[in-house]
Amino acid sequence: MEIIQITDLLDGNGSAAFRPTVMALGNFDGLHIGHQQLIARARALAETTGVPVSVLTFSPHPRQVLGKGGYTHLLTPSDEKMRVMQELGVDIVYVVHFSLDFAALSAEDFVFRFLGALLPQTVVVGFDYAFGRGGKSDTSQLKLLAEQIGIDVEIVGAVSAYGDKISSTLIREKLSYGDVRLVQELLGRPYSISGTVMHGEKRGRLLGFPTANVEPNDPYTLPKNGVYLVRVLVQQTWNAAVLNIGTKPTFHDDHRRTLEAHLLDFEGDLYGQTLRIQLLDFLRDEKKFFSVDELIGQIHADVLEAKTRLHTFSGISY
């Protein structure tokens, strides 16, 4: 998959560097099953015309640049987004540096000066796609303008689950409840967090449950504090684990959130390694214990419950 970074308005001068594609437009934070349906439609159209399928997306998130709440933390940081897009069969990803200047483009400038220079034969967008200054132009305006310069526009309808339109906002809401099983349904894959193992307090080893203190590599949207059944990718091998997300209230009074993973029956040095963690199920809320023995007893129970639930997940054995 080819990744092309775009930092300036093309103004029609750089078109020689691009080739005809069928292009999916959107930010695609989450790359949930609604996004996947849109990309699949673009891929199907590309196959019928014999051109590559491309995606046009933005970095940083437009809402972050515009100061709108909720998007300082992401569902799919750049590396994760690129990995999933490659799995979805995307040939080319155009990553546009989103700035206040770009946000100020009129609808006409976005289509005629920018989009047209990328040479898409067809663009595929969701029904609620908005663009242009203030996000005031919709799909009907996009279709009207694009067809003036020979670009077809195909609009994909909403994808729903349990009566709700699937969206990044809905997924964030479900994460805030710790409902990672439902999030997996909405994403079409487990929610993932990648991070580096750092030296911590080493308290888990003293308790008999050594843990990897994981520092996320990007500003992920984290689920609510609690204990989760997860699997962890270590050097191309998946390992079942129990993950605590929270503030460790038994030992601390501050509110700094940490991620600590206890890999079941794993031995080895993980310091400095990058781990990919997939959240499979919520086990319990984080709580403060009144003694170390009470905490150890609860960890034993957590590990037992994790091993029991592993059997409900295909492709994972213990």
From TrEMBL:
Pfam families, alphabetized: FAD_syn, Flavokinase
InterPro entries reported in the protein's UniProt record: Cyt_trans-like, FAD_synthase, Riboflavin_kinase, Riboflavin_kinase_bac, Riboflavin_kinase_bac/euk, Riboflavin_kinase_dom_sf, Rossmann-like_a/b/a_fold
Enzyme class: transferase
Domain of life: Bacteria
Pathway stated in the Swiss-Prot or TrEMBL entry: Cofactor biosynthesis; FMN biosynthesis; FMN from riboflavin (ATP route): step 1/1; Cofactor biosynthesis; FAD biosynthesis; FAD from FMN: step 1/1
Residues in coiled coil: none
GO molecular function, one term: riboflavin kinase activity
Domain Riboflavin kinase residue range list: 186-311
Keyword Aminoacyl-tRNA synthetase on entry: no
EC number from the UniProt entry: 2.7.1.26, 2.7.7.2
Keyword Nucleotidyltransferase assigned: yes
UniProt KW keywords: ATP-binding, FAD, Flavoprotein, FMN, Kinase, Multifunctional enzyme, Nucleotide-binding, Nucleotidyltransferase, Transferase
One GO term of the biological process aspect: FAD biosynthetic process
Catalyzed chemical reaction(s): riboflavin + ATP = FMN + ADP + H(+); FMN + ATP + H(+) = FAD + diphosphate
Family: Belongs to the ribF family.
NCBIfam families hit by this protein: cyt_tran_rel, PRK05627.1-3, PRK05627.1-5, ribF
Job description of the protein: Catalyzes the phosphorylation of riboflavin to FMN followed by the adenylation of FMN to FAD.
Protein name in the entry: Riboflavin biosynthesis protein
UniProt organism field: Tumebacillus algifaecis
Organism classification: Bacteria, Bacillati, Bacillota, Bacilli, Bacillales
Gene name, Swiss-Prot/TrEMBL: ribF
